[in-house]
Amino acid sequence: MSEISSNFELAVLDQRPFFETALRYGVQRAILTSSKIAAIETEAPKGMVQIAEAFGSKYLRPEIELARKRIVNLASLYLLETSGGDLEIAAKLIRDNTFLTLSRGGSGLLKALFAMPEYALLGREVKGKVEDFLEAWSLRDNPADYRQALEHRQQNALEIEAGFWFGEVLGLSRSYLQDEDAEAVGIVRSALLVTVFGGEDGSLENQVEFATLVDAIRGLTPKERVQAMEMLDISEVPLQFHPLVRRIVQEICEHDLPLFKDKKASLDKLVFSLKDRYYLRDHEIEDTSAYDALVSKEWTRLTKGKTDVDSLMTLFVCIAAGVTPKTSLPEKNAKSIVKKFRERGFTHELASQWIKTAAPHEKQEGLLEDWDNFIEEANNYLMDDWDSNYSGALRFLSLHCHIESAVR
User: Which superkingdom heads the taxonomic lineage of this protein's source (predicted)?
Assistant: First the structure.
């Protein structure tokens, strides 16, 4: 640990305001004269009145007390950050500057902190008032709070800068990314995944392309996946982004790639587990048939591309009855299914289980809700023994399913 770092940590651990500690040190070492102390005593009340007036009222005693705390905190912040915790340097700063200059220096540091991005998003950040920020932060007397916030916001700024740079790798302009308010790290992670596994023409325009890329990665062995990440060439990446890239590569290796080891997991489940960590230009797919066909082959085979509720309820009824799944039924087949339910029970859980295993992951919640609503009402009609000629049950199915009426 360097001497500057050691001094800084000792200063942070000291419970007294750093200005007070540096002042005592300066007096004890004869760095500060009695005339300098007198000047500070003269300046301080003026500064306190100015601060009290800025954040409240100069006529209320509680506001003056808060102003005293604010001005000392601001001066302490400036001294600590400028001296790195070195008391001799801090004492000389007190000697060579007015008390108000020191407090204004602390205010300047907080204004610079306020200007830095609070979040690592690529949109145009909407900030509150700097006065409100100063009012809150000038009362904080723990130097570690400022240091942590500074490091966090500096990292955000770096990630944002990297996000725009890697956005160009994906063919995304700065203005587009700002309009999308994209997550910076998501852009970097996406660009790295495409670069490593997608080849020269790789892209992540939408969920279909992402699923295609994931399927290709799934075809590699665990060793091949890790080797591909390790062989990533970042020589053309700006040096200031190298630590960030290495961190994200490590995250991909430790968090994402292990998900590919589960050979029983469907492609759809894998895509669902990963996609929120990456940026997909067209996240919502208007025509889901291509995606469904890629990730849920059994679903596509049985639904035959039908997505309307009536077709799907018909399919689920067939699955619940244990008959050949269809999205449309002749009336006589529907009647046979109702008869089977009344004889053996309405085993609707069979359809629920099939939805959970075969339906695209994103659709499952909505499909299960639709099916549960269907079940709740269906029990009143399909299992009604008083409906001996099945007319009520068939009317219900005709309203909620695709039932082909018999030719009279």
Answer: Bacteria
Output the pTM of the full model: 0.73
Angle at which helix 87-96 crosses helix 61-83, to 10 degrees, equals 120
pLDDT tens figures, 156-196: 999 999 999 999 999 899 999 999 899 999 999 999 999 99
Question: What are the tokens at 268?
Answer: 């759809």
At residue 401, φ and ψ (nearest 5 deg) are -135, 180
Beta bridge partners of 404: 330
CA distance 321 to 335: 12
Dist. CA 109–CA 115, nearest whole Å: 10
DSSP 133-145: HHHHHTT---HHH
Total residue count of the chain as it appears in this document:
408
Q: At what angle do helices 18-28 and 61-83 cross, to 10 degrees?
A: 70
Cβ contact 240:155 at 8 Å: no
- Kindly report, residue by residue over 198-232, the tens digit of the pLDDT: 876 777 778 888 888 998 999 899 999 999 998 99
Please state, in angstroms and rounded to a whole number, the distance separating the CA atoms of residues 170 and 191: 6
